[in-house]
Amino acid sequence: MKKAIGIILVLATVIACCFAFAACNKETTGIEDGVLNVATNCYFEPFEYLDESGNPTGIDMDIAAALAKELGLTCKIKDMAFDSVVGSVASGQQDIAMAGLTVTNERKQSVDFTQTYFSSSQVVIAKNGSAILDVVAASDSEEDINSAIASIEAALKGKRIGVQNGTTGYAYVSGDSDDYEGIGATAVGYESGVLAVQALKNGTVDYVIIDAVPASKLVAAIEGIAASTVVLTGEDYAFAVKKGNTELLNKINKAMDKLIADGTIETIFSKYGLSSGLGE
User: I want to staple 248 with a disulfide (CB 3.0 to 4.6 A). Which of 29, 109, 212, 257 is the partner?
Assistant: First the structure.
């Protein structure tokens, strides 16, 4: 009888330890049941968008799959409004945000960022024939580039600018951020860059400001618009995890290092006609 009671007590202790380990693992990594829960917004081609079958695809989604495989996890994508992506990770609802996400001081207040993996910028989209498209930098010198940016910002002042909600473009126009002062224009927010461009086409807004690579996809797909060659900002993309979750952050960074070293990341970018610039 005593032996049986002893076995029961040992089993109870083992079970309790298992539950404690599981709880600790969930708390420190955010990973539960072997699933990497990814928050994204599938309206940012080529980084994330829906394929013809309605499935999430794109650069970030391919990287998500590669990261999950490297970590021995399965990958579950949650498509949501872009301005909810960071909050879903900050609150612990999702494990990682992968959405062409620019590293900003404001976002650093609520999430921690992985190493960066792509450099981007904001550009103006305008209707064909718009004078703003004629503004170019006279050279690659910092003075000439800044002069061109100043000319564009002067042209944008007082205008209605279509932007995607929660994006760097929105912050750049409105100044509603710790990172940008605003340009004296009205930011008109939309759920996607496509909707912002449609508003430009029908005259609801005067211009659109969005990241350069998605801008190139939009102008290639939609007639009557073009993107300025002058870049307004310099910024870097990274993935985000819950603030203080250093265990998951370190695991993601370690996996990224391996995927960069073995050429996986560059292969993914080249699949979409881009170069990551990593490892150069």
Answer: 29
